[in-house]
């Protein structure tokens, strides 16, 4: 059973709960989102697998998930990059936490993402091997092209990625 770390708004742990139950109840929990970039400054997007229980086939950032107990955000990011995208963590350079913020997104299926999200950035230039139960496909895209696509076709992107992208631009252009 996969659990998430429940937190208060200061990112202090207050308990643990089964992942799906935390999303059903909309309780604030710790999460992370990774933005990988290549040498051209493009970011890696993933399209969620068709079998995901929410937001199937929508585009989102390189990787996102939840930290495990006693696991740092960077350790969790490296673990999930390997699990979802087959990326060897030793091939990722300059992996760092950029900022964190809290968001809430409700879905038609009754689930709610209410997360204190640690946004992580890094650079990667190697092979990608998708876990088909997690990821349908990937693509590299420039930030200007991504901003344009999100403006023209927001329905093609996950709800949380639309929020994260706005936060990302606000934090990194200050």
Give a verbal description of the structure.
The chain has 174 residues and is an alpha+beta fold. The protein has a single domain (3-172), classed as Alpha-Beta Complex (Nucleoside Triphosphate Pyrophosphohydrolase), CATH 3.90.79. It has four helices and nine strands; from the N terminus they run ββαββββαβββαα. The chain has helices at 19-25, 73-85, 143-152, 159-172; strands at 3-7, 13-18, 29-37, 43-48, 59-60, 63-65, 92-106, 112-124, 135-141. A hairpin with a 5-residue loop joins strand 1 (3-7) and strand 2 (13-18). The mean pLDDT is 93.
Question: How would you summarize what this structure contains?
Answer:
The chain has a single domain, classed as Nucleoside Triphosphate Pyrophosphohydrolase (Alpha-Beta Complex). It has 4 helices and 9 strands; from the N terminus they run ββαββββαβββαα.
Helix and strand topology:
Elements: E1 3-7, E2 13-18, H1 19-25, E3 29-37, E4 43-48, E5 59-60, E6 63-65, H2 73-85, E7 92-106, E8 112-124, E9 135-141, H3 143-152, H4 159-172
Parallel strand pairs: 3-8
Antiparallel strand pairs: 1-2, 3-6, 4-5, 4-9, 7-8
């Amino acid at each position: 059973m996969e659990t998430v770390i429940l937190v208060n708004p200061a990112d202090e742990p207050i308990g643990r709960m089964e992942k799906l139950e935390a999303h059903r109840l909309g309780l604030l929990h710790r999460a992370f989102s990774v933005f990988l970039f290549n040498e051209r400054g493009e970011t890696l997007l993933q399209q969620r697998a068709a079998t995901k229980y929410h937001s199937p086939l929508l585009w989102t950032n390189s990787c996102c998930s939840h930290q495990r107990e006693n696991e740092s955000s960077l350790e969790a990011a490296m673990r999930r990059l390997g699990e979802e995208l087959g990326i060897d963590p030793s091939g990722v350079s300059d992996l760092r936490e950029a900022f964190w913020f809290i968001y809430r997104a409700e879905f038609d299926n009754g689930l709610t993402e209410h997360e204190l999200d640690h946004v992580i950035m890094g650079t990667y230039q190697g092979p990608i091997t998708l876990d088909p139960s997690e990821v349908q496909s990937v693509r590299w895209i420039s930030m200007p092209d991504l901003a344009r696509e999100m403006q023209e076709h927001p329905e093609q992107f996950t709800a949380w990625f639309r929020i994260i992208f706005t936060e990302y631009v606000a934090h990194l252009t200050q």
